[in-house]
Amino acid sequence: MNHSISLTVNGARREFVLEDPRVTLLDLLRERLHLTGTKKGCDRGQCGACTILVDGKRINSCLALAISHDGADILTIEGVARGDQLHPVQAAFIAHDGFQCGFCTPGQIMSAIGMMSEAQAGNDPERVRECMSGNLCRCGAYAGIVDAVLDAQAGMDESNQRRSA
Amino acid sequence: MKQFDYVRPATVAEAVAAAAQPGAVYLAAGTNLLDLMKGGVSRPDRLVDVTHLDGLDRIERLADGGVRIGVLVSNADLAHDADFAKSYPAVAEALLSGASAQLRNAATVGGNLLQRTRCAYFYDTASRCNKREAGSGCDARDGENRTHAVLGWSENCIATHPSDFCVPLVALDAIVEIEGRNGRREIALDELHRLPGDTPERETAFEPGDLVVAVRLPAAARGFAARARYLKVRDRTSYAFAVVSAAAALRIENGKIAEARLALGGVAAKPWRARAAEDVLRNVAPTVDAFQEAARRALADAKPSGDNAFKIELARRIVVRALSLAVAGTPARIPALPASPFASTSGAIHA
User: Fold this and answer.
1) Neighboring chain A residues of B51 at a CB cutoff of 8 Å
2) Which chain B residues are Cβ-neighbours of A67 within 8 angstroms?
3) In the prediction, which pLDDT does A75 show?
4) So what's the ipTM on this one?
5) Is B344 near chain A, with CB under 8 Å?
6) Which of B190, B231, B206 is nearest to B90 (CA)?
7) pTM of the model
8) What domains are defined for chain B?
9) Which residues contact A145 (CB under 8 A, 6 or more apart)?
């Protein structure tokens, strides 16, 4: 039986017909929309490479059935920059060498963006490490990742202060 | 993954009818179920998706002073609900010590209760497992079993229940509201999970079609808010299941313990309420000696199921330390590393 669903992906509304209910959000993004920035690492919810935002919250897209997310608003790594202007978290990862091979990086960046909106970690490196523990980096670029997230967080705090001043 | 039919019921009654059919299972976030399906461990014929049902995602303060948590509330939303975290701090700390931020955002209250064991032999379909396939045998018994059960296990199964959330819940007398084919009923969380005995494939007190709709904490649970902690030892600092954990909650009056609550995680096929330990703590001063006696009572019936004798001594020490942390008082803010013995703000002197 075919199932029709609609999703908003990086601001654009998309309709899908699913011939098979087994497709995950991860496979839908990669195979149907060719948005291959979202990576398939473990495919079992252990590595975080597939992290996306669904309705503003970071989740593992490998453990989410597309059919169950009819109507959801999805943000992937392809949707965070404004044209050539990088998202502040993307810029901070470059500035701080927050990666080596780069495979986990889209998931790290989406997770960091989600983390900042959760507002639980602040500028505490220990809390940042804990709040980012769902994203593994097998190159071991953690020191740069934590620095990048703290830097991006500080930039966001500053711009928020400027806005409220 | 095996092919399945997907059903999205419009009402709870439709959901119960659809899930009562043989081979049907409920789907909430799917963070555990999809993992099991991808590995061929779970092979349902039909998924009944309850995530679109109305009214199951609310946290309600009840007139009697209790709280009612809808089954679809996410682990993250519950832990970060300011009023809930203040009233039931050990529950919030347990939630935040589990899984990763991504998983907590998706995973639901009901899914947490009903998640399956992480026994590696249960997950490995090439291994014998009485839980996965009744009567096939248990390869964990003579296998890698250092994290397996030390309480309530049987020769047929030595798996543990992996939930952190359930540990403080069972200590605080949580009640599970169930909608079934014969209407609404409720049971104590302590009676939801079964010990393995001769039927480890029967993990819960559920009948076909039963749907958890809410978890309730009675008014008395709030009385422990000032002194309640969850402490969890794991093989890595974050994003790991408990080797051993404990939830401890105390009410102190006039320098003595008026009431103690204690439960252990990672030690049995269910969250393990330690009532004998609670009894020895009534009307005594909260001293390390008293906590050590409570720990001794809590583990009195423990026995190793393999290479895990260390868990018994570890559990005793975790009990003493969790009680010591509880008596020191609930911290104003959950530590950076929730429930970790390495938390820099733990404030405890090692017992």
Assistant:
1) 68
2) 6, 49
3) 98
4) 0.97
5) yes
6) B231
7) 0.97
8) 5-52 (3.30.43.10), 223-328 (3.30.390.50)
9) A93, A96, A98, A99, A108, A112, A132, A135, A137
